[in-house]
Design a protein that fits this description.
The complex is a heterodimer of chains A (416) and B (296). Chain A has 20 helices and 2 strands. With 416 residues, chain A is mainly alpha-helical. The longest helix of chain A is centred in the first third of the chain and has 35 residues. The radius of gyration of chain A is 30 Å and the shape is globular. By secondary structure, chain B is mainly α. Chain B has 2 domains: 46 residues; 222 residues, MetI-like fold. Chain B is 75% helix and 0% strand. The longest helix of chain B is centred in the first third of the chain and has 32 residues. The chains are: A mainly alpha (416), B mainly alpha (296). Chains A and B meet through helix 3, helix 7, helix 9, helix 10 and helix 11 of A and helix 1, helix 4, helix 5, helix 6 and helix 7 of B.
Chain lengths: 416, 296
């Protein structure tokens, strides 16, 4: 009532500016109300549908979720009821549009049956486990018995544990070194292969070859090479001089944090460089040939051409390859799992002692990178709840990476 | 003027020294890249004692490789032949299923332009950012409980793992098909409908053959992934299950013959060779497929 009076007063003043201001306020209020109602109606619906699998595991847990949803909509229950009156019997409409005769119903049926197999398997195998996983990360699930809801205790545990930060630190370190190694090697290979050599096709196929071998099998090959083959060459003295960490029992893979990391990076670079090389080849071949010819006439030597023409023009491919190697580095599992299963035990680096107020430098598995760490936590130690919480954090990190990637790609498209 | 004189082509072969050096360098790199394969090959043809003594020397005779293969084939707990055919069946049938179902889903999602289709497409896309590690724990539990309460055992069964691959392969496949089908002109389909095709016929007779290029790309991408995959089958089938895939067999063998390098390397060789043979035959498609799949 007060609002109406105010409006009348304003109208009598004839102040148009203020009037429109009130109008905007009124519309805003209406938008807020409507979106509030629909939002919470939708929220309740989503909770009901999305958490349906939870019902399967604990009826009380499902009921708790629904109660939570209900408590959100309760203040607006009258508005929600009014909305329901507006849109009656939606299921009946759906029924008719699907089972009736005619083109519309026919195309609806085709739509449904064509979509069903892919959507069903995707829901059952990916989406439902994903939602369940969010729920499990909030429980003390240990593999046997029913999980109990313990809210954010798992997350508190893992964020209070220096071992998890160490795992993250190692993963980040590994990823950065890996990106550098793979991209440098791959780009050099691509430059080499795009020269007009007689054996270029052979080289392309040859460099690509390691990619065909699965990570697990590859792990065994290199476990053999590191533990048996390399020691008979006697190249260790050189490596020790370069990296400064002694190699125990003639095996680079099991001696110390730096050595094992480098050993893994060598393997992954060997495997992955050929693949990334193909991306660079495609980019290099897209460089307009006139540019190269023109620079040749102007007297640029091969190195100058590389620096001023090739490098700037394959910048796009760099971003693509960079993100590709970044995500694969983070997800690295098979190779490390079969080579070391989490790696040699080493000490945490010095700055961790200061950072977390540790009294000693406790031993930690040095190649327990995030993906391996999740697996070990869950299937070796049966801490499924904590393992799942780690997995969710892992997911968030990868999500951020891919969002940044999408952002970059979008921006690039705008620039083009 | 001098320039009007026709240029005499220099027929003598110029010896391009940088090019020769580059070729030599490339050959050296190739040898370096192939060294691990060579090491596997020569050591698979030795007995364990010789490998420990000198892993770099050439074997006395390559006949030993068949002896080693024989030992692995005879081993009843590794079940090598069976694992090979399991891997083959799982890979080929899930490739077929992923291809056809994803193409079907992508087709209806492109051809029906509603908010619903867009939402479902986005839903599929969101699956691309979910790594397997995030869903593996609940997946195992879900499948166990589903099997216990409904009687349809998804764990330790062929249909379970095929369904799993269909689900995990769907996001990328639907995405690639979706992009490709958008470029297929709708006029062809309308013409087919006027000629009396039903909608499913339009898809299977007209659209699906047109999708061949992207289909090949997906065969390569998914095939490499599924053939070499260890984690998913080890969890969905279970390591103590009634059947196993090739990577699981290698894992099992390496676990039971600790440091028996002759047998481990022979099994590694046997696991790697099918992929290498496939590569030799379909090299063009594999390289093109994997590269175009990467640049999404």
């Amino acid at each position: 009532m007060a609002k109406v009076q105010e409006q009348k007063q304003q109208r009598s003043f004839g102040d148009k500016a203020k009037n429109s201001g009130m109008r905007i306020l009124f519309y805003l209020l209406m938008i807020i109300t409507v979106s509030y109602v629909t939002l919470y109606g939708a929220l309740k619906f989503i909770l009901r549908v999305v958490f349906l699998p939870v019902k399967y595991f604990s009826v009380t847990g499902y009921q708790k979720v629904l109660d939570f949803g209900h408590s959100l909509t309760k203040p607006f229950s009258k508005l929600v009821d009014a909305f329901k009156e507006r849109f009656p019997d939606m299921s009946g409409m759906l029924e008719e549009s699907f089972h009736g005769d005619g083109d519309k119903a026919d195309s609806n049926r085709v739509f449904f049956y064509f979509l069903f197999p892919a959507l069903f398997s995707f829901l059952l195998m990916v989406m439902i486990p994903f939602v369940l996983g969010i729920y499990y990360s909030l429980t003390d699930f240990r593999g046997i018995g029913d999980p109990n809801f313990i809210a954010f205790e798992n997350y508190q545990d893992i964020f209070g544990d220096f071992r998890y930060y160490y795992s993250f630190y190692r993963t980040a370190l590994y990823s950065i070194l890996n990106i550098l190694a793979i991209n440098v090697v791959a780009f050099s290979l691509a430059v080499l292969v795009t020269q007009k050599l007689r054996i270029k096709n052979l080289m392309r196929a040859g460099f690509f070859m390691p990619n065909l071998i699965g990570g697990l099998v590859l792990g065994y090959i290199f476990q053999f090479i590191y533990s048996q083959a390399v020691k008979s060459i006697g190249a260790w003295d050189l490596i020790v001089k370069v990296f400064g960490e002694p190699i125990l029992q003639d095996n680079m893979l099991t001696s110390g944090a730096t050595n094992s990391l480098i050993a893994i990076i060598i393997v992954v670079t060997w495997q992955y460089a050929g693949y990334i090389m193909m991306i660079y080849i495609a980019a290099i071949q897209n460089i307009p040939q006139q540019l190269v010819e023109a620079s040749k006439i102007d007297g640029a030597n091969a190195f100058q051409r590389l620096r001023t023409i090739t490098l700037p023009l394959v910048a796009q491919a760099f971003t693509v390859a960079m993100f590709l190697t970044l995500t694969t580095s983070f997800k690295q599992f098979d190779t490390i799992f079969s080579m070391t299963g989490g790696g040699p035990t080493g000490q945490v680096p010095g700055f961790f002692v200061n950072l977390f107020g540790l009294t000693t430098r406790p031993p930690v598995p040095t190649l327990d990178l995030m993906a391996v760490n999740i697996y070990n936590e869950a299937f070796a130690f049966s801490n499924f709840g904590i393992g799942q919480a780690k997995a969710i954090v892992f997911f968030v990190i990868l999500l951020v990476i891919s969002l940044v990637q999408v952002y970059y790609n979008k921006r690039r498209e705008v620039e083009l | 003027m001098e320039n009007t004189k026709p240029m005499v082509k220099d027929n003598r072969k110029k010896i391009d020294i940088p090019k020769i050096l580059l070729t030599l360098f490339g050959l050296g790199l190739l040898v370096l890249f192939f060294l691990p394969f060579v090491l596997v090959l020569i050591n698979a043809a030795k007995v364990n004692r010789d490998i420990i003594a000198d892993p770099l020397s050439m074997p006395e005779s390559f006949g030993q490789i068949f002896m080693n293969i024989g030992i692995i084939l005879d081993n009843s707990s590794v079940r090598y032949v069976q694992s090979f055919f399991n891997s083959l069946i799982i890979t080929t049938s899930s490739l077929f299923l992923i291809g056809v179902t994803s193409a079907m889903a992508a087709w209806v999602l492109v051809r029906r332009k509603t908010k619903m289709s867009f939402f479902i497409f986005m839903f599929f896309l969101s699956g691309m950012v979910i790594p397997f590690q995030v869903v593996m724990i609940p997946l195992v539990r879900l499948l166990t409980i589903l099997g216990r309460s409904t009687g349809i055992g998804f764990k330790d069964s062929l249909h379970g793992i095929l369904l799993a691959y269909m689900g995990f392969g769907a996001p990328l496949s639907v995405f690639l098909f979706h992009g490709f089908i958008k470029s297929v002109p709708i006029d062809i389909e309308e013409a087919a409908i006027i000629d009396g095709c039903s909608k499913p016929q339009v898809f299977f007779k007209i659209v699906l053959p047109l999708l061949k290029p992207i289909f090949v790309t997906l065969l390569v991408l998914n095939g490499m992934w599924i053939w070499n995959d260890y984690l998913l089958p080890s969890l969905v089938i279970g390591t103590a299950g009634t059947f196993q895939t090739l990577p699981m067999a290698v894992m099992f063998l390496a676990g039971s013959y600790l440091r028996q390098w002759d047998l481990i390397l022979t099994s590694v060789l046997m696991a790697a060779i099918p992929a290498v043979i496939a590569f030799l035959f379909a090299q063009k498609y594999i390289i093109r497929g994997m590269t175009s799949g990467a640049i999404k």
